[in-house]
Amino acid sequence: EVQLVESGGGMVQPGGSLRLSCAASGFTFSMYGMSWSRQAPGKEREMVALMISTGTTYYTNSVKGRFTISRDNARNTLYLQMNSLKPGDPALYYCGRLRPGRARPENDYWGQGTQVTIST
Q1: Residues 6 or more apart from 93 whose CB is under 8 A from it?
Q2: Which of 8, 9, 41, 67 is the most exposed place for a label (fewest CB within 10 A)?
Q3: Side-chain half-sphere of 89: how many Cα atoms within 13 Å?
């Protein structure tokens, strides 16, 4: 059974940093591309960062230069380092496994999410 469990969310001040983690199990982690998505209240879920199995990364424009996706295949763990957090960043952040063989990235599994909040 595929399981993805996110952690590391919380409340930070504007300009602060957080590091999200995603523990994966039930599949050969190193063979799959992985992603981070977020969903704010009243908005659609958007994919903000992804890393394919070769290590190549992609970011949505709003997080480029601030967020870094990485993975530790030995620990079956995906990370998202978030720096310079802005008021537009608070959301429920989801880790997802990328469905293989698709021209456009889409997830076939994702976790329950971890909440990121910015204090005002």
Answers
A1: 6, 9, 20, 36, 37, 38, 80, 113, 114, 115, 116
A2: 41
A3: 31
Residue pair 30/51 in contact (Cβ under 8 Å)? The answer is: no
Which two three-digit tokens encode residue 55?
């290590």
Enter the tokens of residue 47: 């994919």
**3-class secondary-structure state, position 13:** coil
Specify which residues 68 forms β-bridges with. 81
For the chain, give the percent of residues with pLDDT over 70.
100
Q: Alpha-carbon distance 32 to 22, whole Å?
A: 14
> What tokens were used for 34?
């992985």
Token pair for 19: 């590091």
- pLDDT tens figures, 57-73: 999 999 999 999 999 99
Nearest to 48 by CA among 30, 72, 66: 66
For the chain, residues with pLDDT lower than 70 are none
